[in-house]
């Protein structure tokens, strides 16, 4: 009898796990349309102050010799060091480990925060769903959401700073160009930064 009960529990757990769906981390554009302004999460076109550098151009900023005065109120992302540094207007600095874009998916330049979203939804693109018909139209907030609990949208409407459902990727070149953070870190940063905050992405 005890054996039958254990067998029933094992079968039930197998069925429940079969229905559970975990989605791979996804940053919005990967191999599905490049850097066009068709991101399903953000309707923002590039605003007039958008000032990008070409994707593979060496930036003019050097984190080894930061200008504290000019960096106040600014997010600086050091790609090679997998580090995001936010300097408040008071001069207080916060440094966070991040995941950055894979080779060929990295972007460098200067942009701004245009929007923030708490518990963002993940909306796979039409081409993603065509490639994987099992993907839903929308993944609501929750542990399976590849964007985590917070998303900070940058001025091109595609790049973003966000959480992740793959914390093991932090500190690596793992994303499709966006910047992933640990949950507690992105939630802290989200509370501090406001739309208009300058973001400098360095090599």
Characterization of this structure:
With about 200 residues, this protein is an alpha+beta fold. It is about 20% helix and about 25% strand. The chain has an eight-stranded mixed β-barrel. A hairpin with a 4-residue loop joins strand 2 (about 75-80) and strand 3. The longest helix is centred in the N-terminal third of the chain and has 18 residues, at about 1-20. The model is unreliable at about 15-20 and about 30-70 (pLDDT under 50).
Query: Overall mean pLDDT score?
Result: 75
**Main β-sheet: number of strands, strand sense, barrel status?**
8 strands, mixed, barrel
How much helix is in the residues?
10-25%
N→C terminal distance? 64 Å
Task: Summarize the topology.
Layout: H1 2-19, E1 51-52, H2 68-71, E2 74-78, E3 83-87, E4 93-101, E5 109-118, H3 126-131, E6 150-154, E7 160-162, E8 173-175, E9 179-181, H4 183-192, E10 198-202
Parallel strand pairs: 2-10, 4-8, 7-9
Antiparallel strand pairs: 1-5, 2-3, 3-4, 4-9, 5-6, 5-10, 6-7
In short:
Helices cover 19% and strands 25% of the residues.
Features of the shown structure:
alpha+beta
